[in-house]
């Protein structure tokens, strides 16, 4: 079968059949992904983070194909499945891996909230996908819980690629099911290997995560990950009862895989400047809607194959120019000039130092020896401890963020859109997730959690960031401490 090789900086050469290149890759909806950045506005912090959903999709395809071909060489995995059935699963998996992100709107997850969910769900019904899930006995739960980009992707898969997929002898509804973590064929009673195909794209150890963890670390240059991808790929196996699993080969690297995911959140996507850049971009989309009366991102815009990061940035530029006195114009100028304000603390250590567990007493500055610059000298005397009162402060701050943004803006005498309180998102080791990662050994499987591996590891936790104009940081910390002590202090014993 004639093939095309595409050089990928992460995985080397990715080889695709020419039919897939012609029928999927070299089409307008898929090529649009070249202009949808994987990490939204994070390139304003890590300049190399310009990789897109396009190369990520190719990487997921490469890993999915490689892993499944490895599985097909394991007699235990292929038992009771015919060659034709395995070929069908592989064809479906390869197409699903390529198309799993085809529905991402501009700026990836940032703009999903602007998609009209009613319109989107109507389009999903029109594709016949709801009926297909019902007839397979799955019901509507997967579609109800799906993210907007997954639903939009399903619409595109059926409407844009349905004929091409059928020409490949692939069911477009089964491709959609894989994207959502299901196999309709398996649910209808086909061999258990069909379910494994879906798990390879949608599970705690899926190839989607495997690619983005590796790719985000490499492309940003963050260097927070030391992870043997080849060993992980070689460790995949499967079991009739547990489905997708890892052999004991993975024991030396599964911890790095889990730690790497968390490290990327902590130091890349949840870097304080990344949080601000992405929050600013999302706020600009909202302001665009306010000044123009139109949504910056629509279902029809994505389905028309043209709506990408560049198109929306141009809409923002034009609207900012036409409304020079608007909040949008101010935000746009800040975004293009990368004039990002200070955050009152960059990480948990600084939060504990400047707010402290002894919220009563002190001079109200939280021991901030940094004046108002970006440096973090941490000259307080609290030792970075994290006591119950600090937990109470964090909860109070994030639960009342809108109100406290207004309070801070009034106290600092600045417009409210120049004060933002945002909560970082860092997923901890979830015990349930550990239980969902099976390790196959000696003919049986036990979860990572059952083996007692990695379950007691402690990682950083989400913290609130407070962004205020330069020169106001010390005053902002004082205002927040005083407000907390006034509102909550007595109840916590602070």
Automatic annotation (TrEMBL):
Keywords: Hydrolase. It comes from the Archaea. Residues 379-389 have a biased composition (Basic and acidic residues). InterPro entries: dGTPase-like, HD/PDEase_dom, HD_domain. Residues 369-378 have a biased composition (Acidic residues). One of its GO terms (molecular function) is dGTPase activity. Residues 358-391 are annotated as: Disordered. GO terms for biological process: dGTP catabolic process. Residues 49-222 form the HD/PDEase domain. SUPFAM superfamilies: HD-domain/PDEase-like. This is Metal dependent phosphohydrolase. It comes from Halorubrum lipolyticum DSM 21995.
């Amino acid at each position: 079968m004639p093939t095309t090789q595409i050089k990928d900086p992460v995985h080397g050469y990715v080889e695709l059949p020419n039919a897939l290149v012609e029928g999927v890759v070299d089409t307008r909806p898929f090529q649009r992904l070249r202009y949808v950045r994987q990490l939204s506005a994070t390139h304003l912090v890590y300049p190399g983070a310009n990789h897109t959903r396009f190369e990520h999709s190719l990487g997921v395809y490469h890993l999915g194909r490689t892993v499944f071909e490895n599985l097909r060489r394991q007699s235990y995995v292929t038992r009771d499945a015919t060659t034709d059935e395995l070929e069908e699963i592989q064809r479906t998996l390869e197409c699903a891996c390529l198309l799993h992100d085809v529905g991402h709107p501009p700026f990836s997850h940032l703009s999903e909230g602007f998609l009209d969910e009613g319109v989107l769900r109507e389009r999903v019904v029109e594709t016949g996908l709801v009926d297909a899930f019902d007839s397979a006995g799955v019901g509507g739960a997967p579609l109800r819980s799906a993210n907007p980009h997954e639903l939009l992707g399903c619409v595109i898969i059926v409407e844009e690629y349905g004929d091409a997929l059928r020409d490949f002898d692939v069911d477009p509804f089964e491709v959609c099911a894989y994207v959502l973590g299901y196999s309709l064929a398996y649910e209808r009673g086909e061999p258990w290997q069909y379910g494994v195909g879906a798990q390879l794209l949608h599970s705690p150890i899926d190839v989607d995560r495997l690619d983005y963890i590796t790719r985000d670390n490499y492309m940003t240059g963050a260097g927070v990950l030391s992870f043997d991808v080849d060993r992980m790929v070689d460790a995949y196996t499967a079991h009739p009862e547990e489905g997708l699993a890892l052999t004991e080969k993975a024991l030396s690297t599964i911890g790095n895989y889990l730690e790497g995911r968390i490290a990327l959140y902590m130091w890349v996507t949840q870097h304080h400047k990344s949080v601000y850049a992405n929050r600013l971009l999302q706020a600009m989309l909202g302001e665009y809607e306010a000044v123009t009366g139109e949504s910056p991102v629509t279902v029809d815009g994505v389905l028309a194959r043209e709506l990408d990061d560049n198109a929306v940035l141009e809409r923002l530029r034009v609207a900012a120019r036409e409304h020079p006195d608007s909040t949008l114009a101010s935000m746009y100028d800040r975004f293009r000039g990368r004039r990002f304000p200070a955050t009152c603390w960059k990480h948990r250590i600084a939060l504990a130092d400047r707010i402290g567990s002894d919220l009563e007493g002190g001079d109200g500055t939280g021991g901030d020896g940094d004046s108002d610059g970006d440096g973090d000298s941490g000259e307080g005397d609290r030792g970075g401890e994290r006591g119950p009162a600090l937990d109470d402060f964090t909860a109070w701050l994030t639960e009342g963020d809108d109100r406290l943004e207004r309070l801070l803006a009034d106290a600092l005498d600045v417009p409210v859109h120049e004060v933002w309180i945002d909560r970082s998102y860092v997923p901890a080791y979830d015990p349930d997730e550990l239980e969902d990662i099976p390790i196959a050994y000696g003919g049986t499987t036990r979860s990572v959690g059952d083996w007692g591996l990695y379950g007691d590891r402690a990682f950083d936790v989400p913290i609130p960031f407070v962004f205020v104009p330069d020169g106001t940081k010390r005053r902002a910390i004082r205002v927040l401490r005083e407000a907390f002590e006034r509102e909550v202090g007595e109840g916590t014993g602070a």
